[in-house]
Amino acid sequence: MLDKITSRFEGIFKTLSRQNRLSEKNIQDGVREIKLALLEADVNYKVVKDFIKLVEEEALGEKVLKSISPTDQFIKVVHDKLVDIMGSHSDEIQLKKRGEISVILFVGLQGSGKTTTCAKLGNLLKVNQKVLLVSADTYRPAAKDQLKILAGQTGLGFFTEDHNDPIKICKNALKYAKDYEYHAIILDTAGRLQVDEPLMVELEKIKKITEPDEILFVSDAMAGQNVVDVVKSFDHRLNINGIILTKFDSDTRGGAALSIKKTTGKSIKFIGTGEKIENFEKFYPERVAGRILGKGDIISFVEKAQAAIDVEEAIKTQKKLLKSKFDLDDFLSQIQQLKKMGPLQSILDMLPIKGQMKDQSVDEKNLLHTEAIILSMTPKERKNFRIINGNRRRRISLGSGTTIQEVNRLLKQFESMQKMMQKVKKNPRFLQNMLGGMKGMNL
Amino acid sequence: MAFLFKSKSKSEIERGLHRTKESFGEKIRSIFTKKINDPDFFDEMEETLIMADVGVETTLEIIEHFKAYIKDKNIKDGEGLKNLFKQSLQDMIPQVTFDYKENQLNVLFIVGVNGVGKTTTIGKLSHTLKNEGKKVMLAACDTFRAAAIDQLSVWADRAEVPIIKQQMGSDPGAVLHDAIDSAISKQIDILIVDTAGRFHNKANLMAEIEKLNRILNKKIESAHKETLLVLDACTGQNAYVQAESFHQSVQLDGIILTKLDSTAKGGIVIHIAHQLKLPVKFVGIGERITDLLPFNRDEYIDSIL
Fold first, then answer.
1. pTM, to two decimals
2. CATH for A52
3. Could you give the CA distance from residue A118 to residue A133 in angstroms, rounded to a whole number?
4. Domains in chain B, start-ordered, CATH in brackets?
5. Which residues on chain B are in Cβ contact (under 8 Å) with A45?
6. B241: number of Cβ within 10 Å
């Protein structure tokens, strides 16, 4: 995600960092490049104009030009201004306290991903709420079925009725939620254009009947210059509380993310970052600014890691590492923990090393193959891989559905990994050098 | 070459383009009434084109072109430029429609990212083609999204055309094999293949669509195949990137631009035509089953200028 705009910014900063001192001309050139990069990213034209003016004013001041590392200062100015236009803090959704039913209403254009997002938000809320998904989309064929399937997959309640009156469905859903003691209901409505008068009136009626705590506008992150007008018209009719940006894992360059707050005053509350139900996060302006500038999103990475990694297991592995007793079993458990963190690509997206390896696509299958190969070994083989001879290799490759070559490759890799660990043990500095590229980050 | 689709009445085409006309067109036209030596002339033009999703690169090229022309021909008012703009748009945007071949199987292979309106577009297409007296069949190769098959089945019922499907999660390649066999044995005129939405930056999903494409090319060498990318008119510059990557993977023959009845300004047509030389073949302009029209370049240009 955000690859394209990130690489544009990296290029701009690289050019600047070749200069010991920055002249006014250097800054102006850099600012012009940034302007083009933002426009190409579909950032609203007016936002770009304001943004560029602010950056230029501040960057041409003494603080940047006369500082010891002017490029770093310049980057900081750009970072701060990016955060400014996206809103300096993250906005939470506001739900009622226990005992009352909170209502969340989803609205938006067709194809923005409302239905999928209903399930994603429900999945997030189900940790401490009993959530009911309601389909009031009586227009798109099979929309109700889609939400029903998703509710089933995520273990959430589902309600709809077999007629074509969305207002009646919402009304009855409230009653159903009360009867069955749900805490939160998420109403999915049909996608509609903001210029479709009858359908907009219908939304106003739904709002009146259900008195939602949160009306969230769901928008495609790839939306063009048009998105600002659309949000404004929905807001005008319904007074929305915030925005969810979907498809953030596409190669969106963040145009909508950068434009919406500044032009409409509404905050982005969540972003959808993938096909899976769990690919859904709160929106943090700081972190997105970091990702755009190629500085990575270490905070999200650490959070994900904390959620997925079993601390005891990690300590055990670390101890083994130091004793250099690291065997294939430990390797396997590492792979399994890595898998728990979600798709590899999304993990890499959060790291600042991304800039240097963005063209290498990560092959998730390799990980699965490696796992299969190790799982096909006997406990004895996993403890001491040196006993794995030709016969055993053949058996393992058959058992894991891979080729002998793949088994060989894995064993070789593991051997060199062990050697490297020996080196780290003898000389801890070795690891620091290896990770040297990462220490430039300051988040 | 047969020209499908009965010609629509003028008012219907205008309905589809009236937003473009209102927002993008009005602004452009007002600029052309100005004097060129107005210091803001080109700034305003740049702003208008970019705001209409024409794209930075194409916008800058158009403006460079204008500037050179003015110098060359010593033009002072906007009106002279307007003609040049019209001419360059005509040069840039190709006018090509679906190239239907009589007496053989035609395959429409429909691809695109999530949520652009692939399934709905196929519903509309099958309805219109069926009304033209063609034998149409649908292949439900979106086996991934929840209820996608149900959605396509509803459209198949509405248009009263047969559909080849398996259950959710099955192999889209297998569905495609079945569909082709069935289309051939039933002497179908047009087989329309629905595929799952996929982001152009997801390597494994793009590999899957390439596989479907290979199956098609291999199995139906004698058939006429067109690969059409469905784009949402509300998408910004990313639409260009989508077109570029799908073009690389499965070699596109054209674009279907949906949701043109929203406030989208439609400038993306210019950008794609100019940078990728891909024609827009159909436009979607509304919710009704009849709301899909062949793209008409001259109508489009008239709506802007």
1. 0.72
2. 1.20.120.140
3. 7
4. 10-92 (1.20.120.140), 106-252 (3.40.50.300)
5. 47, 50-51
6. 20
